[in-house]
Amino acid sequence: MITLNSLDINALIASYLWPFTRIMGLLSIAPLFGNNGIPARLKIALGMLLSAIVAPTVAALPAMDPVSIGGALLLAQQFIIGIAMGFAMRIVFTAVELAGELCGMTMGLGFATFFDPQSSGRTSAISQFLSLLTLMVYLAANLHLVVLSTLVDSFTSMPISAMPMGGDLFRQLVGWGGRIFSAGVQLSLPVVAALLITNIALGILTRAAPQLNLFGVGFPITLSVGFLMLALTVPYLAVPLDRLFAEAFGMMRQLTAGLPKI
């Protein structure tokens, strides 16, 4: 006859609760999984399924009551780790969206905005186009599965431990967050540079012919040049996106190696 006491029940609950918390932290913010269009019940079901697969392979867990103060702190720690890993991948999509915003504003399409289901906010048409293009690349390359694989590997490289997190994790995450601006400017640079040359030419033309209606002529020209440059640069986006995704996965692995191991 099998008998279970309260300690055994707490240990059984903790063996699934703490991995589930880290997994849900990633699923709540990672690209595709964190989309607000995906029902919360589906995310929870996926988290429970992954927890059931991962929990038996997790190393020895700290002997701690899940409903104690220490257990609550450990729960919060695992959730923060999951969010940090998901945020590291989310940076790539945010950089692409920033590139689209820069291109749209330079082209004069800053007023053309749409509802973004991923961020539940307004975004420009060019930004939405580039974001959806990046998402298709993300899915076509099965990178969403690589994200889950990296999450599962994190339980080996960063075991669940009661030891506090160091400041290196947050410092690395903040430093990686600055990649939004550098990558966004780099991705939008061809379009912005072409439009800058176009605006300089229009300025010289207006100076030479003051009677020329700049607003009537300049707006169609900048739109045409902007769309032409987008058509020329989109086929070559695979290389910088591949590099950004590789950097994001490297950051995810670096973050999961930031805590001492037991």
- By oligomeric state, this entry counts as single chain
Range of helix content: over 70%
Distance between the termini: 34 Å
Name the overall outline. Answer: elongated
Sheet with the most strands: spatial strand order: 1-2
Average pLDDT over all residues: 82
- Main β-sheet, in a few words? 2 strands, antiparallel
Which strand-content bin applies to the residues? Answer: under 5%
In the predicted model, the low-confidence regions spanning at least 5 consecutive residues are none
CA-atom Rg in angstroms: 24 Å
Question: Could you give a quick summary of the protein structure above?
Answer:
It is found in: Cell membrane; Bacterial flagellum basal body. The protein is mainly alpha-helical and 262 residues long.
Note down, in words, how this protein is organized.
- With about 260 residues, the protein is mostly helical.
- It has one domain (about 5-255).
- Helices cover about 70% and strands about 5% of the residues.
- A two-stranded antiparallel sheet has the order 1-2.
- Strand 1 (about 115) and strand 2 form a beta hairpin.
- Helix 5 runs parallel beside helix 9.
- The longest helix is centred in the middle third of the chain and has 39 residues, at about 70-105.
What topology emerges from the helices and strands here?
Blueprint: H1 6-27, H2 40-54, H3 69-107, E1 113-116, E2 121-124, H4 125-140, H5 143-157, H6 167-177, H7 179-208, H8 214-233, H9 238-255
Antiparallel strand pairs: 1-2
Helix pairs in contact: 1-2, 1-3, 3-4, 3-6, 3-7, 3-8, 3-9, 5-9, 7-8
